[in-house]
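Q&A log
Question type: sequence-to-structure
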Amino acid sequence: MQSDAPASANPISDVASLTPVIRDECVVVDRARALPATVVDVLRNAGVFQLLVPRAVGGAETDPLTFLRVVEQVSYADGSAGWCTMIGGGYGIFGGMLPPEGAREIFGDPATISAGNFRPDKGMAEVIDGGYRVSGCWELASGSSHASWYIAGAMLVQDGAPISGPEGRPRMREFFFPASEARVIDTWESTGLRGTASHDYEVRDIFVPERRTLWFQEPPSEPGPLYRMPPVAMFATFIAAVQLGIARHAIDAFVELATTKVPTMSEIILADRVTAQATLGRARAQVSAARGYLENTLQGLWDRVDAGHAPTLGDRGDLWLASAHAGHTAHAAIDMLYTAAGATAVYAASPLDRCLRDARTALQHVCTQEVHFELAGRLALERDAVASVWGLDYRGEG
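Response status: OK
Response body:
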């Protein structure tokens, strides 16, 4: 379904208005392991997948904080829907990194939703005339049930031998190809985020022209400040926004439960228990503080990049730290609320059950894992700190 609607002046309010329909439609995602088509359509029509796409090819080219808040708001409605918004919309950033001809081909269509995995160690790309012959099998293609394009990373080879770049490192690249050229392998039987359809996918000897390839260290094709932000570190903040949105849903679910539930061996409702009140207060404070830290860190770097600042290693580390902190804090807050809710929370019909499973699954993503606390500390202590993410490091994303 294609939307020709102009970019909204207030996308956050637009997606907030969709919360009831998203929540109602997504009750099936644990069983279906994919978003309902109705949810994909309303998100597409709201323009969420075009928010980071360059204006030059018809996108909104919004600022990163607006997109982060859109992701959080959709995640408040449903974790899987928020995750797919983060992936399908977040990958719009590549429209400013691809050669213009390739960006128009992929993102010039307002119906485009992309999915895939950046990891270059899962594929091989033979250099040939006009482009590459790509083969590989990748995991975790979130949004595979509704994607029209895939991205995949691969190592470059020529005449069967790996190609080395500066410092003897293997040369790598990212490749876009139509969804019709990929085979999806049904693997997504997960604990949480079950509606993301994060299956494996593979291609064998497909041709990808040069115009549909990019690498993070190359200068962006678009001049706007959005495409001068560090893309992978910025992407980490969008992942954290999913967890914050899920935590906000859990807080509301706990409040609703506490005002009606009379716990076993109690004569008062849960809301009148001091321990429940304190748990809710801590959860709200922790989530609000984590959101503020994440937003301030992202907005601060955005302001500097908009003013002409080139992101430093420290800037990247700050984004990774704020993202990891937000993810872990959100999960901890949900876990406290789940515990305070008692046995009611263990049922699959409980929103707290889904929130806990979705947040736990999101926390397993490489962008919010514990290693980023260590690396941030190493940077603060002025020690060398390099983290490998999708075959990149803090320096390697450009």
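Response note: The domain at 114-214 is CATH 2.40.110.10 (Butyryl-CoA Dehydrogenase, subunit A; domain 2).
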